[in-house]
């Protein structure tokens, strides 16, 4: 499992670099969410394969459509310094990025 670095996307997504998903899954640092406030951290998952993919984070499964699918998954937790695991049903054609879209 590789730790995916969080990228600043406050200026938009045009400079976000997607990386290949790892066969054993990846880890991500969640944004902070407490008292109804969050830091705006998201996992972006792109699927260019002909088959749908399932991405699981924090016990919740998200389906990413085939061919041109994109999933935007909110990533938050109470302890942002503790990376959490994300897994994939398959990694063919799957690229990922973790972005923060709110001010620092």
Can I get a quick summary?
The protein has strands spanning 2-4, 6-8, 19-20, 26-28, 31-34, 37-38, 41-47, 53-57, 60-64, 69-74, 76-77, 84-88, 94-100. By secondary structure, the chain is mostly beta strands.
Structural features, described:
With 104 residues, the protein is mainly beta. The protein has one domain (2-98). Helix content is 0%, strand content 52%. The protein is globular.
Q: What's the total count of β strands?
A: 13
Shape: globular
Order of helices and strands: EEEEEEEEEEEEE
Low-confidence stretches: none
Rg (CA only): 13 Å
Helical percentage: under 10%
Strand content: over 45%
Number of helices: 0
What number of structural domains do the residues give?
Answer: 1
Mean pLDDT: 87
What is the terminal-to-terminal distance?
Answer: 27 Å
Helix and strand composition category: mainly beta
Q: Order of strands across the widest beta sheet?
A: 1-4-12-8-9
Largest sheet: 5 strands, mixed
What's the SSE blueprint?
Layout (H helix, E strand, L loop, with lengths): L1 E3 L1 E3 L10 E2 L5 E3 L2 E4 L2 E2 L2 E7 L5 E5 L2 E5 L4 E6 L1 E2 L6 E5 L5 E7 L4
Parallel strand pairs: 1-4, 2-13, 5-11
Antiparallel strand pairs: 3-13, 4-12, 5-6, 7-10, 7-13, 8-9, 8-12
Entry keywords:
single chain; 104 residues; mainly beta
């Amino acid at each position: 499992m590789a730790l995916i670095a969080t990228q600043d996307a406050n200026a938009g997504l045009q400079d976000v670099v997607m990386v290949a998903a790892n066969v054993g899954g990846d880890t991500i640092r969640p944004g902070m969410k407490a008292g109804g406030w969050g830091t705006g951290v998201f996992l972006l998952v792109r699927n260019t394969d002909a088959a749908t993919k399932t991405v699981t984070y924090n016990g919740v499964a998200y389906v990413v459509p085939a061919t041109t699918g994109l999933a935007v998954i909110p990533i938050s937790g109470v302890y942002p310094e503790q990376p959490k695991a994300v897994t994939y049903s398959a990694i063919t054609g799957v690229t990922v990025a973790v972005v923060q879209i709110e001010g620092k």
